[in-house]
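Structure, all two chains, one model.
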Amino acid sequence: MTDLLTIAGLRTVFRTHGGEIAAVDGVDLSVPRGRTLGIVGESGCGKSVLSLSVMRLVAHPGRVATGSVTLDGRDLLKLSNADMRDVRGSQVAMIFQEPMTSLNPVHTVGFQITEAMRAHDTHASKAELKNRAIEALKRVRIPAPERRFDEYPHQLSGGMRQRVMIAMALACSPKLLIADEPTTALDVTVQAQILDLLRDLQQETGMSIILITHDLGVVAEMADDVAVMYAGRVVERGAAGAVFADPMHPYTLGLLGSVPRLDEERETLLAIEGSVPPPFALPKGCRFHPRCPFAVDACKSEQPPLRMLADGHQAACIRAPVEAFVA
Amino acid sequence: MSDTLLEVTGLAKHYPVREGLILARQVGVVRAVDGVSFTVNRGETLALVGESGCGKSTTARLVLRLIEPSAGTINFEGVNVTRSAGAAQRAMRRRMQIVFQDPYASLNPRLTVADTIAEPMIVHGIGDTASRRKRVEELLGLVGLRPFHAQRYPHEFSGGQRQRIGIARALSVQPDLVVCDEPVSALDVSIQAQVVNLLKDLQRRFGLAYLFIAHDLAVVKHVADRVAVMYLGQIVETARKGDLFTTPRHPYTRALLAAIPHPDPQRRGQVKPLGGDVPSPMNPPPGCRFHTRCPFAQERCRIEAPALRRMADGHEAACHFAETLPPAGLDFSGGLSEIAAKRLALYARALAA
């Protein structure tokens, strides 16, 4: 009832010489109002294609094959292109990993922010837009916003650029912000500043956030709910507290084991063997089975569905929780 | 035990900044590295950590003389190699190798893996074709690749595998010191762990010394013996790893440690971000370079630059008030829940089996 966004049965495919491959393959997720969903996974797990599918920005030869993306009761996948353009920016906005490549180097910061505003408000005067842009810069705590308005992206540091991106994304007060690895390119002290800012802005505006990241620390810091993706599918989802305290899927365990922790010292890190399979060479059965230390024959034939293992906590593994199967 | 392999004293690299096209006149100096001193002992790992632009990668390249220092000396096994040239320099370079950050850009796409790994041996005139081929096979096995990989090209490999190739190439000439310039920061977490484990394993087997450049303190905590923290071209703190993480003396080190997000939602919101940005190395602040962002800064910090001072038990810090700062109040404990730890143990056991 309070879900802002519901994704159901989403499947995004790319046409290749070898036939269609699914980068996102049957994903169900929801984001409640005012909350943050963290999507975790490694390169190639489909988390970025998922967010582009929500924005309907998947480029040719990719397309959303099946499923629905319902925002506030409207299926975004059924909207006309013109209606979808209205939704982008004003309802759903996105920020990306590389603040330098997502900003246009030949336009001033001010021009780029007012550009987004103008797209949704054709009547506002130039002076009014400028005031609103400076307000937006102030909101993301950029010092001397009047001066920054006339500067170019190369004159800003990485953290400042990401703030500009956030200011631009929030210029039209969207209900949902999709942040795709927003702090991956930044230093840790700057990362802490940006995460702090996102949290404060969420409190102020009540927006929902989808935070896409490979960093479990960032997810733990920010997310209310977590979805772990592997090879185009969600393998575990639940409240952040539950997923970290009671990790069910072997892939989630592997990720937790791979992260060097500050609170302990281990001789060797618990690595996951091998690497994520490319979408054109997916293994049969559970997609994680070739890398899974708990895999048995049944894992090789049947693709396990997500099943409820605890209150609101699902995992797609027939061997979860592992202690029930491995003594 | 403390058998010094590399000793660097007062190392500096200043880049002139010019303006104008033809009669370019110098308008300033970027002090990328500004008076850095440290030692690396045989078989140990010294980590150089800091944020982008602090000069850690420049320091690494200066040590290898891939760029020439503006000042300072580099001693390798007690021999001054700062100005060595010709055969002496080549001999030194055989013993110091490097693993680069970007496994995509640091391998020649037109060379097979075998040729890539054999190239340093050819440069240094080691062995003949047959013995080099044998050595390549041996190295591939060492870094966890298969013999049939030798005839393949870099594009056929994933990021983690490419990094293994880069490591094999560095080890081909049996160096004593390997400079690892952010070797795992371009890799996914699960792959990061594989490469970190490999580096540690190789160090144990061959007694390698690592100069490990990194910005991720959690990784550093895992691989380093000693840590040097850099800020704006200077070292602000060095200590044995345990000391640095339990009792960081410099406010900047504390800020770095406090900024690391902890993989535990119970502890959310404990990160207190440091304000501001790193100042420009062209115009560093007077006095202590950190004073513009330091929560403990006082009048003296704005005027007088603090020197790196030796404190208890080999711990060094460049802060006027290092002894009198309030306790850091860092607490990294209590990450894993009981059930998660139990399942991880089962995972480790199943992995070993």
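Chain A has twelve helices and twelve strands.
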